[in-house]
Every structure is written in structure tokens, then in C-alpha cells.
Amino acid sequence: MTRTLMTLREAVRADAPFLVDLWHDTLRRVDRHDQIGDLELVIKEAGASPEQRLVIAEYDGRPVGAVYLRLTTLSPLNLEPTVQALSPHVVASARRRGVGRALMDAAIAFAEELGVGHVTTAAASGSRDGNRFLARLGFGPHATLRHASTPVVRAKLAAQLPASRRAVAGRSQLGQVLAARRSMRRQQTVG
Fold first, then answer.
1. CA-based angle 121:122:128, to the nearest 5?
2. Is-contact 82 70, C-beta < 8 A?
3. Quick count: other Cβ atoms within 10 Å of Cβ 156?
4. Which of 3.90.226.10, 3.20.10.10, 3.40.630.30, 3.40.50.2000 would CATH assign to domain 6-136?
5. Residue 28: is its pLDDT beyond 70?
């Protein structure tokens, strides 16, 4: 009798350090201790909700992959229900052993369990292998999600204004700063 090397299970609090290592590129940029705390909260919420599941893949008894599943809508405007398979990751040493397929199978099973007809997922734009894997499973592009910091976008928007409007916008911002300072001085004088 052969033993199955790979198993799937729901995440427990002790998985948080493994998940920090696995998902380090997708977590908020804080120290490791805070990231572990964030993931402990995510694990707790997923365990308490019938609309969420955090699945850990183990190969030969050690964790090698994970995916976070949640029931939501395709978008805030398109209310078609979907199961999002967020951050399906497999450690490099366990790739090409069926772990990714098992994680995506868990997403399909979760969608079927909830009676949902769609599964949505994403791979990093620079992850050629991840995007090819998802395409082989039948996932097509639906949208391009872009991300930038607020100050960068503000600066780019201001730079694209005609020169005459940039000067007006700059004075307007300066006027707002000065008005805020005057307001603070009045409050200090009154107080």
C-alpha cells in the first residue's frame, strides 16, 4: 500500500510563520512580527467564516503551499458571485508535484460547495510560470489590476497638467496649507 505524500488541510495559527515566508511579496511592509500577527488574524477570521477558507498543502508532512479562498462578487459593480483564490503559492522545492493543481482543486471544490459558478484568481504580472499555469487551467484575463502609492499618482497627475494650470494648482495647495496653519493658530489662541 502506498502512502499519499500530499494532503490539504485548513490553516491553523501555527501556520502563520510559514505563510509569512510563502507570501512575503504580498504582505504589507512591516516587520515579521507584525506580519505574523496579521496572518494569525486572517487565519482566525477564515476559520470562523463559512465564506472563507485558508488551505495549506503539505507534502510528505511539511507545508509547501497555500491559497486563501473567499466568496465575493466579480466586482463591486458586477454582483455575480465568485470564489476568489487569492495568492495560490507553492514553495520552489515542491513545484511540479501537483501541489498547485491540488490548491486550485480546493478552490473549485469550495465554489461547488457554495453553489458558485465562477472562480477568480490572479498571478503576479511578472510571474511567467504562474500565469502559464493558470492559463493551462482555463483562466483567462479579465482585467489588469494596477497598484501605485498615492503620492506617486498625485505627482504624475500634477506633471501632466498644462504649465499654466500647474501654477494655479500649486498656489491652490499652498493656499490650503496656509489656511490650515491659520486655523491651527486660531485654535491655539482660543485654547
1. 135
2. no
3. 10
4. 3.40.630.30
5. yes
Per the confidence metrics, is the pTM higher than 0.90? no
* pLDDT per residue as tens digits for the range 141-189: 888 888 889 988 888 888 888 877 765 555 566 666 777 778 777 777 7
Per-domain residue ranges of the chain:
6-136, 150-190
Q: How far apart are CA 117 and CA 82, in angstroms?
A: 7
For residue 91, report the phi and psi dihedrals to the nearest 5 degrees.
-65, 150
Could you give the CA distance from residue 123 to residue 145 in angstroms, rounded to a whole number? 11
| HEC profile of 58-72 | EECCEEEEEEEEEEE
Q: State the Cα–Cα distance between residues 129 and 50, nearest whole angstrom.
A: 31
